[in-house]
Amino acid sequence: MTKVLVLVGSLRAGSINRKLAEAADQHAPDGIELTTFDGIVDLPFYNEDIDDDTPPAAAVAFRDAVAASDAVLLVTPEYNGTIPAVLKNALDWGSRPFGASPLSGKPLAVIGSAFGQYGGVWAHDDARKVAGIAGARVLEDVAVAIPQSVVRFAETHPREDAEVVEQVQGALRALADAAAEPAAA
């Protein structure tokens, strides 16, 4: 069983990206188990002064969840041309301690949807960049950017869109395959 931790960059309960994460969970291929970690909202802004011998409980819970997973899936919208602050903050917490972080070497993919015509590709590119610098083993070839989400999903849930389901399943299979490969030394 490949355990995938899902981080959703939108905090809205009715967010299209949250619905996309739900679709991924509902249609996950056999042998892949998803867990959405909603606690990123509880993480304080990263501050090295509070990341000491007793970091905040929310940070410990987040790092433990990342460490317990085999891979990470970021599901993010695009806010002002980049990733939401809550997701960037989570990646900052997950990147520490430097050299021994729970993200270090962890396979990670980025998917999402946005209102614009490109589906959030700038945010996805930035998320891949940040995650890679944070130490994750980013799957650069996984690209699921669903444009015009407000129109496309106005009357349907992403889980009911066969094309979306196929793309999300492909991303999850790629994560499972990467998790099964030994990390490069």
> Biggest sheet, in brief?
6 strands, parallel
Proportion of residues in extended strands = 15-25%
Q: Count of helices?
A: 6
| Fraction of residues in helix | 25-40%
Shape: globular
The beta-strand count equals 6
Distance between the termini: 24 Å
Q: Helix and strand string, N-terminal first? A: EHEHEHEHEEHH
Describe the structure concisely.
The chain is an alpha/beta fold.
Can you lay out the helices and strands and say which pair or pack?
Blueprint: E1 2-8, H1 16-26, E2 32-36, H2 57-68, E3 71-75, H3 85-94, E4 107-113, H4 121-133, E5 137-138, E6 144-146, H5 149-152, H6 162-180
Parallel strand pairs: 1-2, 1-3, 3-4, 4-5, 4-6
Please tell me about this protein's structure.
This protein has 185 residues and is of the alpha/beta class. 37% of the residues lie in helices and 16% in strands. It contains six helices and six strands. Strands 1, 2, 3, 4, 5 and 6 form a six-stranded parallel β-sheet that branches. Helix 4 (121-133) links the parallel strand 4 and strand 5. The protein starts with a strand and ends in a 5-residue tail after the last helix. The mean pLDDT is 94.
Descriptive key words:
185 residues, alpha/beta, single chain, 6-stranded parallel β-sheet
